[in-house]
Amino acid sequence: MANPWIPRPVAIAARTRETADTFTLRFELEPSAGAFAPGQFNMLYAFGAGEVPISISGDPERPEVLLHTIRAVGTVTRAIARLEAGTSLGIRGPYGTAWPVDRAAGGDVLVVAGGLGLAPLRPVVYHLLAHRARFGRVAILYGARSPEDRLFARELEAWRARGDLDVAVTVDHAGRDWAGPVGVVPALLDDLAIDPAATVAMLCGPEVMMRFSARALTDRGVAPDRVFVSLERNMKCALGMCGHCQYRETFVCKDGPIVPLLRIASIFDVREI
To answer: How many CB atoms lie within 10 A of CB 136?
Structure first.
């Protein structure tokens, strides 16, 4: 971008409902304008309401189709939720660090997601599927509040049906029609065989979920420099200038959001930082 502070107006091509409070916006761009790495985010500006950081949830090999999956939980995201196809948003980015898909090549990959955390990891899954022969065992562990709150439910089933991925989904609570596990995401690790030296783990979701999942992985011998987490803090500028997203010496917008556990291990277990 010529000026990273100025959003460019882009029309919404389509809007898809994912769950009761979550939706995906589709934008159609020139490929060079939409290029991103898995894990990066854009700042979306709702005119008259404000700006919010949203991870890119589409396929990095199809940059002409830009996808953002959004949960309507605040003033700006609720304003965005009211927009229909054909109206415009301001977009600037992409920003931030990426998931280490190249480093993971040749070994096993573990994707651990909770709730909306599957959206920033979805580009990783697309990359793994597009280059499946470059990776060993691939496991996807995902948790949602209920079966109805599962994100990308049809894709999860399609990934499971492929036969070359291990996919496990758990929910916090469910009715009698749910036949899968009920419980927290870290519990799914108990039944998963892991080769610590060959595994790169990528975690995104509520911080408490990532904290306990990371602890379970390191307890099983996965080195902290092979475990990556996606941090979430209040971002305003996305350029490391305002300090809103400071996490001790780390600025989440420019040094993250994807960071190795090794970098933040000394404070990751400390609540309220």
So the answer is: 13
* Residues contacting 65, CB < 8 A, separation 6+: 26, 27, 28, 29, 34, 58, 59
Average pLDDT, the chain: 95
Q: What span, in angstroms and rounded, lies between the C-alpha atoms of 261 and 255? A: 13
Amino acid at 160: R
In the numeric block, which tokens belong to residue 251? 């600025």
Domain count within the chain: 2
pTM, two decimal places: 0.95
The percent of the chain in helix, strand and coil, each rounded to the nearest 5, is 30, 30, 40
Q: Where are the alpha helices (DSSP H) in the chain?
A: 31-34, 75-81, 101-104, 118-130, 153-162, 207-219, 252-255, 261-268
Judgement on whether residues 136 and 255 belong to the same structural domain of the protein: yes
174: amino acid identity, one letter: A
Q: For residue 140, what are its two tokens? A: 């996807």
Other CB atoms closer than 10 Å to residue 161's CB: what's the count?
9
What are the tens digits of pLDDT across the range 209-218?
A: 999 999 999 9
Least confident range of 86-100, 144-158, 191-205, 232-246: 232-246
Q: What angle do CA 169, 234, 67 make, to 5 degrees?
A: 50
The residue segments making up the domain with residue 239 are: 101-268
Angle at 34 between CA 61 and CA 128, to 5 degrees: 25
Same domain for 121 and 256, yes or no, is yes
Which residues in 208-226 are b (16+ Cβ under 10 Å) and which e? Answer: ebbbbbbebbbeeebebeb
- Of the candidates 8, 85, 15, the one whose C-alpha atom is nearest the C-alpha of residue 42 is 8
